[in-house]
Every structure is written in C-alpha cells, then in structure tokens.
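haha ok so turns out i had the wrong file open the whole time. this is the CORRECT one, sorry everyone. sequence first:
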Amino acid sequence: MKILDGKKISNQIKEEIAAEVAKMRENGEKVPHLAAIIVGTDGASLTYVGSKVRSCERVGFESTLVKMPNTTSEVELLKKIEELNQNDDIDGFIVQLPLPDQIDTQKVIMAVDPDKDVDGFHPTNFGKMALDMSTFIPATPFGILELIERYGVETQGKHTVVIGRSHIVGRPMSILMGRKGFPGNSTVTLTHSRTKNITQITSQADIIISALGVPKFLKAEMVKDDAVIIDVGITRVPDESKPKGYYITGDVDFENVSKKASFITPVPGGVGPMTIAMLLKNTLLARERHRSLD
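then structure:
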C-alpha cells in the first residue's frame, strides 16, 4: 500500500510555481494576482481562505481578500464581482462557498468572468472541460488528476467508480476520468445517494473516488484487493476528548481499507492540500492567458 501524499506533492507544485513567479519578477513582468471574496463568518471557509492567502504569499503572488458581512445582499455581491471582472490587475478570483441563504449561488457563479474563473465553476469552463478543450479545471478534480499522474497510477482500461455527483467534484471527476489521454481512458460509473447495491459496484472498481461527505462510508468489504482509493470527503466529527473538540475524517474507513488498497489518500493531507495548489496553478494559467492578450 502506498500513500498518495497530497501534502508532499502540493509543496512540489508550489515550489515549481514560485520558481516561475521569480522568473517573472526578474523579467520585470507583472506577477499573478488572486482575489477571494468571502461573505459571512463560516469557520471552515475562513480557515480555507486564510490558507489560500498564505499560499499566495509563499509562491510570490499578489493576493486580495474581500470580506463582506453575512447580511450582504445579492445585488451588493454581484456589484463586487463586476468590479473584480473589470479590474485588469486581478488575474483570477474566487467566491468562497457556501453563501448565505439570501444569495443565489448559481447567479453568482454565472456572474464571474469565465477568463477569471480560477475555480472552474462557470458553465463556459465546465462545458469546455466536458469537450476536452483547454480551460480551467475545478481545483479539486485538477488536484486529483495531478496526484494520479505524479504517482504514475495506471488509469487506462480501469473501472473507476465515483461516489457523489456534485458539480464541484463528482460530476467533473466522472468526465475527466473517462476522457482520452492520461489520466483518463477509464470506464466510469457515477454513483450517488440513490444508487442501489452500491457495494456490488464499488467491489468491482479498480479506482474509487469518494466525494460523499459521509464519515467512514467506504468500508473494507466494499473494496477489492489492490484498488486505488481517493478520499475527497472531509468532515468535522465532534469529539470532546480532542483538543479542538472535534476530529477530521474522510469518507473512507482508512484503517481497514488501507490494508487492501494499492494506493490511498489520507485525510487530512491527501486531496485537501492539492486543491489549493491547483487553484494557484489555475491563477498562473490565467496570468499567462492575459499576458498573451496584452
């Protein structure tokens, strides 16, 4: 069993990006600029955005954090998005999800300029991804592809089972794993909460990508020997015996499943760190695109 170490690979990617940014500075070029909008005070979102800002500093990017109160109206948020769309200094930006109830998430995603949509959520970018065109791939699926590639995990002709059909992970992952090329060329089954006999399906899988958000959902008896397990789930489980009052776990019963797997991602330290690294990579791609238009 080999650990797919997202922490290690994400650090390598950040070093590669930092080297490119250093060259830009030497040449007197504008360095990439990533902005993030956060609405409200959701703890997990604040932690996540904070780590994005620190990662920008580490690789030499400019970064801007726009904090807006929980009471922000949809109109106010859309106005702020339009400001960032028009600001030539900003190469890419994200709107941190989830948003408060008074704001229509779909409207917000549609409002972001596709050329600055480094999250890869805009329908234009999603459509290009589905058609195998050059575009921004959503950061988490992009990170999973990078892990698979850098560890040389064979995907061609394999049966990949994706658990979860969200637009952020499950759906794009099912498209990407079935595309031509590497990583890809696998036969994909997309499963979800309404799938019957899920154990029957997962036990035939060569590769399982679980993005369900249900702690320890995937048990050892659901997995065949030497399967590749990628755990996207991350859940805070309350536990008074822990210093923070909770522990973090994934969708996979790691202790038991890891005994059967050929490759497996840990939680934390697997897919999570890759998401931020690939957001930086998308911002670098956005900067290169904008530079070619300058």
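The chain has a mean pLDDT of 95.
again sry for the mixup
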